[in-house]
Amino acid sequence: xxxxxxxxxxxxxxxxxxxxxxxxxxxxxxxxxxxxxxxxxxxxxxxxxxxxxxxxxxxxxxxxxxxxxxxxxxxxxxxxxxxxxxxxxxxxxxxxxxxxxxxxxxxxxxxxxxxxxxxxxxxxxxxxxxxxxxxxxxxxxxxxxxxxxxxxxxx
Length: 155
Ligand SMILES: Cc1cc2nc3c(=O)[nH]c(=O)nc-3n(C[C@H](O)[C@H](O)[C@H](O)COP(=O)(O)O)c2cc1C
Description:
The mean pLDDT is 97. Helix 1 crosses helix 5. The protein is an alpha/beta fold. It is built from 5 helices and 8 strands. The site of flavin mononucleotide (FMN) has 20 residues, from helix 1. Flavin mononucleotide (FMN) binds next to helix 1.
């Protein structure tokens, strides 16, 4: 039987809610990409040039560490990858996630929440970080996450 995973990073809970909606709607397992060092409010201040998020996003090679891991990634053939848009792309910790597993032959479907930016720049960046996966079109799920996920899977 084909198995689906919803893996997500969420700094302030918005993407987490969408991820849970998606997992419930499509009957998938849920995995939180949890930073080894949690982000504080100050870390998330995009107005501050010296905040942790700004420093990380200014460095394309930055790979924040993840606490824990997905058990038996090999059992999943489809993985939704969710995140908040940060500076028009995915947070660097999502790149850490993509580089931590062998996704060749798996279907990956990105989704994001944002303050208004679209997901297309992030989609290009994700594909560049994980070219061996079969990437499907992503969704901006500030609302309607469940319905979007079902249609993404043809349900
Ligand atoms: C460091 C940082 C950078 C952000 N950059 C963008 C952006 O480029 N475009 C946008 O629309 N929203 C941006 N946002 C807003 C988040 O994408 C939005 O609030 C998201 O829903 C938060 O999801 P979360 O609660 O799962 O972390 C940014 C937020 C942070 C903390």
